[in-house]
Amino acid sequence: MFFSGTKRQISWTTFWLGLSLALAAGGASAADLSQAVVRQKVNVVTIAPSLSGPARPASTGSVVANDNVVRTGTESRAELEFSDLTLARLGANSIFSFDAQARALTCNQGAILFAKPSNSGRVEVRAGAITAAITGSTGFVSNRRAGAKGRQHDATNDERATMLGMLEGKLRGSATWRDGQGRNHNFSFHLGPGEMIVAHPDRRPVIVQFDIPRFVRTSPLITAFNSSLPNAAQLNRAIADYNSDASRGFVEPSTVLVASQQSQFGWVNSVNHNSFDASVDSLGRSPEPDGGGFVDVGGSGIIRGQLIWETFADLDLHLTLPDGQEVYYANTTATFNHEQASAALDHDNRGGTIDVPPSQRVENIAITGTPSAGGYQFFVDSFSTPNASDAFTLTVSGGGHTQTISGNLPSGQTTQPVTVNFPGR
Fold this sequence. Notes:
- The chain contains 3 helices and 29 strands.
- The chain has 2 domains: 35-268, Jelly Rolls, CATH 2.60.120; 303-422.
- It is mainly beta.
């Protein structure tokens, strides 16, 4: 088994990678990988001769030749099968290609599950700067641009949120990262079932655990496809080992959503607070609301807004100040009224932090000092979610009044603002 008593955990939303894996793996003689066949496709799937070449629609039974590029659109997916029964499953908004001579599967973008029969030869899996050699294994890889939350500038091509995880099987490798002086370092590692490596280009990579049984039960990369996976016996054994480790306390049964593009694909079990931002946290604070209608998280202010929800969605609380400044996850503090007042977001809860057990996620924006007269507009935005909609409650106080709205916020939508007029009138 590949779990230990060490409990590590990572944040969803942002993994920036400068990762290079060189894997030493034995290679038996293998079947030809000169082409693959599309065994299943849903919605928009295309095939092109290259990344910049003209694309044509793919259909079930389409042949994908060496160096061809397969793309999936929004809410789309595809499964490719090679002659040695290796499978590659593409989630939404993914770009995939393969090199027959190098026996390499490449995830240029998105999320891909790979499944390699145990009796076939060595295959490489590449994503960004990752190269992973596998013989008989089942795992997933995610590769996405760094234009997500937590970054204050546009991403370069080298700044990618990349993860590589194993459902069953093993691999070994090394990762490179840069320190503050720009020096490169090597990080040697091995992965077993339920382990995943993530890295930031300018910090030491981290290996974390994820929930294999829940992945298998709920991930669209598993459940949204008709065919069975190779190595079913090995995968069932990995699930049994995970459950055994969890029952003995080696795995903390908390859950943090790990997602790529629009494909939900895994859950991580604990957080390394020194490496990433969010956590699943039992803070021991009272879940009961105080007299002003707020749960006891986030302090107080002359004007205050509080957002509460109970799903793995990444909902965000925003505040627009009278002078036009906006306070939210990318601009967490602002001063105004000639620096006599300040507004601050307490934290960006990306759906993984349980602020009030057993399930409440909370964000607060509070204003202190001497606010200027005018309208303060609070609203909620659905940044990302695996759900069609998410229930929420927004409570706002100031100007002598408390206002509360609740409902279900559809994916990608924004609520109408709740306005506090200060001073009250």
